[in-house]
Amino acid sequence: MSNDRLDIQGLGKAFGTVQVLRDVNFRLRAGTVHAICGENGAGKSTLMKILAGNFPADSGQMFLEGRPYAPANPAEAIRAGIAMIYQELDLAEHLTVAENIFLGQERTASRWKFRLDNNAMTQETQELISRFGFPLTADAVIGDLSVAQAQMVEILKALHQNAKILVMDEPTSALSQTEAAQLFTIIHRFREEGLAIIYISHRMEEIMDLADEVSVLRDGEMVWHAPIGDCTVETIIRHMVGRELVDFYPKRNAKIGDVLFAVENLCDHEKIADVSFQVRRGEVVGLGGLVGAGRTEVANAIFGVSKHISGRITMQGKDLKIHSPADAIRARIAYLTEDRKRTGLCTALPCSWNITLPNLDHIGMARILSLKKELEQSRKEGERVHVRWASPEDAADTLSGGNQQKLLLARWLMAESDFLIFDEPTRGIDVGAKKDIYLLLNELAEAGKGLLVISSELPELFGVCDRILVMREGRLTANLQTKDTTPEDVMRHATI
Ligand SMILES: Nc1ncnc2c1ncn2[C@@H]1O[C@H](COP(=O)(O)OP(=O)(O)OP(=O)(O)O)[C@@H](O)[C@H]1O
Ligand SMILES: [Mg+2]
Predict the structure, then answer these.
(1) Boundary (domain end) residue, out of 206, 241, 276
(2) Rg of the Cα atoms in the chain
């Protein structure tokens, strides 16, 4: 008998006619962090969902500490010691942090069996929060939290169960570098305590820092496995993509022209004040800062999402009156939001509808929608960003996480906008596809559009932007030409 914590042998899984996993073998040892890498749609989340009891495999076997393991449902997997943090946040929006953490395992007061002991639950949650130093309170309602904070609640929820195996499917994609660093400290601690951790991420530096072993899935097959000592970022990528990746940040040849878009003294009377900047035609402007600095709020204010905005917004010198996203779309502004589940996709609708949703004016004649044309258009736009789908008519939630992100990109590419705001455009996107997206950003700039790119990844800001604006506590603190500045400079303006 092996002393593996988990041993997966010959696992196979198909959705309809699509074979998603093929003869997958995987071994996980106690006290280690094992990274699983692979392109969008390679099958990483599917493998983890089988482990967590969401659905069964079609073939193959799993052994947990040497014993056959085949969970019938998620509850059974939790009882067996599998703690899973899903890629898509999965919290009850209207409940508090404490209520979410205790969901399904509520404490009752000792004398009154049917009365919930809210005080005890809140207190225990608060202790858990302070143990990890997360910026949260136990009685905050999930709907009021930022994506990063909601992610932290997911982590706490998983840690609150006595887990043998902790699975993290892109836990840091919504976290800033500082918050991610906090998470890594926690992961190290858990590894020392003997937990076995499966870690999925598209951020290669993280994998090099954290993992003890790396396995690579490609098109549903485990194609490579090695101890971290034998890995470099290049070898991992080569096995993921099946080719070398050169010029990761492609060069842009856009001519920077006149001022296209400008805001003056933008203020939402809540999070942001006095924000003024301009974006020229052909220019890619980055917006950096820590999570919570107000970057998304700037985008929300411009796009008519927030109410009670003051200040001036102009396009080509003309004042815009924007009271709703519909006004913004009419003014030829596009906005890719950071939270694809809450404000982006309608996951139950077909992929094609998700692409064409704000673009219906361009399709059909005399306001009569041509469904055939719609399907054709969305197929074309989807292919442009390399969405991997069986058909554009499938529901959006049958796509892998990264491919859902590409769907949103396709939507805004189709919108024929002049000014485009991208909030964390490559979140959850694999390294190969990231490069495709950077190429698209360049194409847009070369076509004379103006771009505002919000990113928490400094290398990305430096790789794609002509200029970087930095925010701190709701205000702009710097306006830097990328070629004359350093990541340290940006961090300094973001924090001091
Ligand atoms: N419920 C489903 N119905 C049909 N197809 C599905 C379903 N869930 C996943 N798939 C398909 O299975 C494949 C693997 O998806 P999976 O989510 O495992 O990818 P992934 O490796 O996690 O990718 P990402 O890095 O984008 O998160 C994809 O082609 C996806 O479209
Ligand atoms: Mg996934």
Answers:
(1) 241
(2) 23
Residues with CB under 6 A from ligand 1: 15, 18, 20, 38, 40-46, 87, 388, 398-403, 430
Read off the CATH number of the domain in which 105 is found.
Answer: 3.40.50.300
Tell me: do 39 and 85 sit in the same domain.
yes
pLDDT value at residue 1: 46
Let me know: does 471 contact 477? Beta carbons within 8 Å: yes
The rounded distance, in Å, linking the Cα atoms of 150 and 156 is: 10
Residue 62 pairs with which residues in a beta bridge?
8
Check the CA dihedral 173-176-177-183 and report its sign: negative
Alpha-helix runs per DSSP H in 105-176: 118-132, 147-160
Choose one of 400, 405, 406, 407 to mutate for the ligand 1 pocket test, by most ligand atoms within 8 angstroms of C-beta.
Answer: 400
Helix (H) or strand (E) holding 5: none
Structure tokens at 203: 């951020």
Residue 65 in contact with residue 41, Cβ under 8 Å? Answer: no
Q: What's the mean pLDDT when you consider all of the chain?
A: 88
Domain with 202, as residue range(s), is 6-241
Query: Which tens digit of pLDDT belongs to each residue from 124-145?
Result: 999 988 887 788 999 999 988 8
Q: Are 50 and 76 in contact (CB under 8 A)?
A: no
pLDDT (tens digit per residue) in 236-281:
988 998 776 667 788 888 899 999 999 999 999 999 999 999 999 9
- Residue 473 in domain: yes
Q: pLDDT category, 62, cuts 50, 70, 90? A: very high
Residue 85's SS3 state is strand
Same domain for 224 and 88, yes or no, is yes
Q: 455 near 272, Cβ under 8 Å?
A: no
224 and 275 belong to one structural domain: no
In a domain, 249, yes or no: no
Residue 234 counted as domain residue: yes
For residue 46, which atom of ligand 1 is closest to its CA?
A: 18
Q: Cα(107)–Cα(109) distance, rounded to whole angstroms?
A: 7
Tokens standing for residue 234: 């290049």
Same-domain check for residues 310 and 406? yes
Query: Do 117 and 226 fall into the same domain?
Result: yes
As for how many domains the chain has, the answer is: 2
